[in-house]
Amino acid sequence: MSTRRPPIKAQATSEDQSVTTLELFFDLVFVFALTQITALMAHDLTWHGVVRGVLLIGLLWWSWIGFSWLCNLVKADEGSVRTVLLLAMAAMFMIALAIPEAFHDLPGGLPGPVVIAIAYFAFRALHLVLFWLIADGDKTLRRTLLRFAPSMLAGTALLLVASQFHGRTQTLLWAAALAADYGGTYLIDARGWRFRSAAHFAERHGLIVIIALGESIVAIGVGVTDLPISWPIVIASLLGLGVSAALWWIYFDATVHYGEHALANEPPETRPKLARDAYTFLHFPMVAGIVLLALGLKKVLEYVGDTEHHHLDDPLKGIGLYALFFGVVFYLLGHVGFKYRTTATVGWSRLITAALCVVAVFAVAKVPALGQVGVLAALLAGLVAFESVRFARERDELRHGHSS
């Protein structure tokens, strides 16, 4: 009796699967892409420019998310999967290279908006075809992929249409493209997806948060690249690093653990829906918030270091100030939503801190930029200190599996 040959060479993951080095290599293009987006928003520091930056983050996020699901089922560094992953990495690198021309094509060369649309289609097509091949024999998953394909095709088609327009029309078409992609995925019955390893999924998303936080640190350095080192730069840099460290603590001290535990304990039939809601959707405001924070930190360092154009007592104004504080607000609200979805409890301390950040935006409007980032650092330090004491026992149980 002849054995049916599988359509693609792939090795299934185990329940305790760890993130592979190829997945980490794959993420390097996202480091570059996030840096490009921050630079683009800093160059076009208008509300329209910020909206476009967030749309680009949404495009990158949705690209990355697809392979986080796929590599939860098959090992990224085995068989034919690694070749497809490297090809997808090349497509994403083309998108990252073209980000400065995502909305305004520069004279000469290839049309930037078209390059992004075509590269995005190639990336998504590689993901969908590979998913289809590894779903061989799973009729339910293949039906889900067939329902998923129209939203993917609609999104990429709208991006191509958007490349032929300019200004507000182009931005609206980008928004429609992402709405089609995100909305189509949300409307699909999540029970049709497959999910194998809670440990891998939680680790994978933790690593993308680390990558985004790395961008916030890069933004501090880039903001003063051409400026002589000074005490204001040193102080502002340390405060900015303190803000990034607080965001790291907020996620990795406990959140990463209760998220993974919730996934592992969820019944198999509803586990994909929890993963979709808590990670695919609710991690987006966290990542977008960190990138907006990076933009704010970049502007703070420019204000305190560039003595030719700014005085040390100049306050950060407008979009730079809003990005600094509201980036943290979006990050904290993402955490509040994540905790509620995974544990059915409200993270009141984080919700209150987010509200205080909103109030602080208006309270520090005339405070020098160095003071503004100091206030933000103090608010987050207060949150970290409070939660360290208030949730000490729960934290110990999560991290070590026993009562203190």
From TrEMBL:
The chain crosses the membrane at residues 21-43, 49-71, 83-103, 115-133, 145-166, 172-193, 205-223, 229-251, 278-296, 316-334, 346-364, 370-389. It comes from the Bacteria. It comes from Kribbella lupini. The keyword ATP-binding does not apply. This is Low temperature requirement protein A. The keyword Membrane applies. InterPro entries: Low_temperature_requirement_A. Keywords: Membrane, Transmembrane, Transmembrane helix.
